[in-house]
């Protein structure tokens, strides 16, 4: 399978803004764990048929096992560079696994030439037997495998530029990683610690999900309007499905446990696309969901199939009733999350709970799927992005190899003050070691205009940063660093233009 010469992984020195796993056998066994369709009467999972003796992984069809104290919910915490570990039976946060120092930590030169820890812990996946968790670090190009029984990192590898998400092959022998900063999926033999293949796709592959029967893989793209379908055994792209241009690039995707739907989250323009994958390979709907449309996932309750979709810019999780006839899905509930920046989402195997990571509140909402309401909010590491629920059949250690990094740090969400009639937004103030981070998000602004954010307390104001709204009039995620809490600021105001006395930047060539 000819592998092109390796490209030197680039270290992205960004202020904003792990890895491999499973059991090893020859690669030809990659898709041999299951052949054929999953019977609709059985408790099947979009993570695939269970390994003998292993639990069914969510999202699952009705009939899977109940929530267990052996199970774990994980979040990838991008600011604290940790993995938060949650026991879903008790809804308790057990601790965190530190993969690097917190963002801008004064105890480590995180952006310096000698720093060797991880930056921007972001993506998560798991093996079908529940034994292994994979973690992706976007900025340091790392892929880790963690033993879910001991919370211990057992392997770290490095791939190309800016990997985003990875998942284990159906038999757990390989780890497929979407290298979003480039144009390929890296196939890793995690036990041997090496790349064994590259599957070249369109620009910006973002995530890999496998069909319930384990024979197909689907790859979405951030910078291309395509969904690739790959034969797992041969590792060849067998279909490139066009995605409507109005949907835009896709950051996340999920496949339903019946194998029928793939939903693509489109963060840049506020739309999400539902795709029929195995039966018609036809786009059934493009839905206007809202700014920063993030992750989708699936549950079945009372015989009704639902899709849940997080919308970070509105701090909401939308609930759609899925159609079984090819008609567009129907919005049945808007859940207002108990925090800001709704991002990663995953259900329990018994379909009774669904968990939502709140990126800008350092928290996780637990949602009762019968009432479609938030029943508990847990405080986790800083800036949780991806979230997964991993079902396990054997007891896990409670706190071995866990610490407290990223936990119990102060956060405050402020309503952004904006000029009358020109939009709305929020400012998250997050305490980091030695500094505070101010994250600004806004919608409904004049498109392609420059704004400056000011911290204030009464008549006292300080300019924090200047930024541009995008072509949709949104500011998705602008970051500034200052002593916000120590200076007793109480508000953040967004004003047009640059601070007085500062030279107006020249427009970019593409904007002229």
What structural keywords apply?
512 residues; disordered N terminus; 4-stranded antiparallel sheet; disordered C terminus; mainly beta
Describe the protein's topology.
Blueprint: E1 72-77, E2 82-87, E3 92-98, E4 121-126, E5 132-137, E6 142-147, E7 152-158, E8 163-168, E9 175-179, E10 184-189, E11 194-200, E12 205-210, E13 216-221, E14 226-231, E15 236-242, E16 252-255, E17 261-266, E18 271-276, E19 282-288, E20 293-301, E21 304-311, E22 316-321, E23 330-336, E24 342-347, E25 353-358, E26 363-368, E27 373-379, E28 384-390, E29 411-415, E30 424-432, E31 435-443, E32 450-457, E33 460-468, E34 475-482, E35 491-496
Protein described:
0% of the residues lie in helices and 45% in strands. With 512 residues, it is mostly beta strands. The chain has strands at residues 72-77, 82-87, 92-98, 121-126, 132-137, 142-147, 152-158, 163-168, 175-179, 184-189, 194-200, 205-210, 216-221, 226-231, 236-242, 252-255, 261-266, 271-276, 282-288, 293-301, 304-311, 316-321, 330-336, 342-347, 353-358, 363-368, 373-379, 384-390, 411-415, 424-432, 435-443, 450-457, 460-468, 475-482, 491-496. A four-stranded antiparallel β-sheet has the order 3-2-1-28, with no helix packed on it. A hairpin with a 5-residue loop joins strand 12 and strand 13 (216-221). The model is unreliable at 1-29, 31-42 and 508-512 (pLDDT under 50).
